[in-house]
Amino acid sequence: MLKGFYKFIFFNILGWKVKGSFDKNVKQGLIVVGPHTSNSDFFIGVMARRILDLNAHFVAKDSLFVWPFGSYFKWMGGYPVIRSRNTKLTDTIADIFKKEDDLLIAITPEGTRSKVENIKSGFWHIAKKADIHYFLCGFDYGNKELVVSEPYKARSWEEDRLKAIQFFGELTGKNPEKDMRHLLKAEKESQSE
């Protein structure tokens, strides 16, 4: 019943559509979601997760998992994480995959809702260490599309970084001034020099 309600809101009320699909044969993987520019992304993602029948979890900063919303975020499938440099976050998440045979975890390549000057390599390190696939999944508010890539295996950081920038650099975030289109523009300019 909730799936039907989310479909009605997502497609009919909000006018979104889905472009691409998740390969159901991939049982372990990361869903690299961006551009992450607004709290609205969480709610679009929650609806999409239900509509697409994904048993996807997410990681978020531990400060979100306190009263009054902590129980809600855990119920929604959240894993609280400490994001300091000394916590070995990528190792922690890779270890979760070694214990779980059927697990999808959503993370953002920016690690923040603010404008970034590059994407972070965390998703790549996790995919490499855990030997799992990753999907690129984008919120394109300009076209009201949830865009899903094919599954990828981590190769070199430079190759996967460029793949992510090319994918997310085509999408308009809820707050366009914070999305990743400027990263694609800078990449194209550096390649033309």
TrEMBL record:
Record carries keyword Transferase: yes
Limits of the Phospholipid/glycerol acyltransferase domain: 30-142
Entry superkingdom: Bacteria
InterPro entries per record: Plipid/glycerol_acylTrfase (IPR002123)
GO biological-process terms attached to the record: phosphatidic acid biosynthetic process
Keyword terms, alphabetized: Acyltransferase, Transferase
Pathway the protein takes part in: Lipid metabolism
An example molecular function term from Gene Ontology annotations: 1-acylglycerol-3-phosphate O-acyltransferase activity
Keyword Aminoacyl-tRNA synthetase recorded: no
Identification of the protein by name: Acyltransferase
Lineage: Bacteria, Pseudomonadati, Bacteroidota, Cytophagia, Cytophagales
